[in-house]
Amino acid sequence: MDADERSEQLEQLFRQTYHRVMAYCLRRTGESAAHDAVAEVYGVAWRKRRQLPTDSEEAVLWLLGIARRVLANQSRSQRRWARLLLRAAERAEPPQTSDPHDAGDDLAAALAEASAADRELLRLAYWDDLSRQDIATLLGISVGAVDTRLHRARQRLRERLAAASPRQEPAKGKNQKEKNHAER
Questions:
Q1: How many Å apart are CA 180 and CA 22, to the nearest integer?
Q2: Residue 100: what pLDDT?
Q3: pLDDT digits over 104-119, tens only?
Q4: pTM surpassing 0.70?
Q5: Rounded Cα–Cα distance for residues 16 and 175 (Å)
Q6: Separation CA 68–CA 161 (nearest Å)
Q7: For residues 171 and 148, what is the distance between their CA atoms, to the nearest angstrom?
Q8: What DSSP character marks residue 55?
Q9: Residue 75: which of 149, 124, 13, 25 has the closest Cα?
Q10: Helices 143-164 and 132-139 sit at what angle, rounded to 10 degrees?
C-alpha cells in the first residue's frame, strides 16, 4: 500500500472512529483534556500511518491503544505539574528588606523596566526559590538555557540598578576602598 492509500485509509478511519475514540477519552478524563487527547491520538496516528493495520477492527484497537498511551502521558504530566505548583507554593515567601525605602524602591523600578521574560525568570529563581532544574521543567527549556538566561537577566538588572543610582559605588569598588582605607 503506498502513502496516498494509507493517508486515504486514515482519513476514512478518522471519520468512522472519531466518536468512539472521543467517548473512550471522555470516560477517562474531562472534556477539554479529552479533546486534546483525541487531537493527539490522530496526530500520532498520522505520523505512524505506515503502521496502520489494514483490518478495520484492528485499526480501531490500534487507535484506542494510542489513546490509552496519550491519556497516560497527560495524566503523568498533570501530576508533575501539580507537584511543581505545590512545591512552588510551599517555598513562596515575599522577600524581606530592612528598609523598604532603601534598595527596594530601586529594585522594584529596575524590575518594572525589565522584560516580561526577565521578570518571570528572576521571580522563579529568587522569589519562588525554584531550582534551575525546576525552572527548566516549568519553562520547557534545558538547564543550560536557564543558566544562560538567568545570567543575562541578572546582568541586565545590575545595569538598570547601576543606572538608577549612579552616586552609589558598586559593592566591589566600595569594599576595595574600605580595605585600602583600613590598611593605611
A1: 75
A2: 46
A3: 667 777 778 888 888 8
A4: no
A5: 75
A6: 52
A7: 23
A8: S
A9: 25
A10: 100
Per the CB < 8 A criterion, the answer to whether 22 and 34 are in contact is yes
Q: Alpha-carbon distance 168 to 156, whole Å?
A: 17
Q: Do domains 3-91 and 103-183 have the same CATH topology?
A: no
Q: What is 124-176 written as a DSSP string?
A: IIIIS---HHHHHHHHTS-HHHHHHHHHHHHHHHHHHHHHH-TTSPPHHHHHH
User: How big is the chain, counted in residues?
Assistant: 184
**Class of the domain covering 3-91:** mainly alpha
pLDDT in tens, 112-160: 888 888 888 887 787 767 788 888 887 888 999 999 999 998 888 888 8
Ordered alpha helix ranges (H), the chain: 3-26, 31-47, 56-91, 103-113, 116-122, 132-139, 143-164, 171-183
Look at residues 54, 84, 67 and name the one whose alpha carbon lies nearest to residue 25: 67
Residue boundaries of the structural domains of the chain: 3-91, 103-183
Q: For the chain, how long is the longest CA-to-CA vector? A: 92
CA dist list (Å): 86 to 83, 119, 130: 5, 21, 12
How many whole angstroms separate alpha carbon 149 and alpha carbon 183?
A: 40
Amino acid 47: pLDDT: 92
- Cell numbers representing residue 65 in the block: 491503544
Using alpha carbons, list the distances in angstroms from residue 177 to 125, 163, 164, 183: 32, 21, 22, 10
| 103-183 CATH | 1.10.10.10
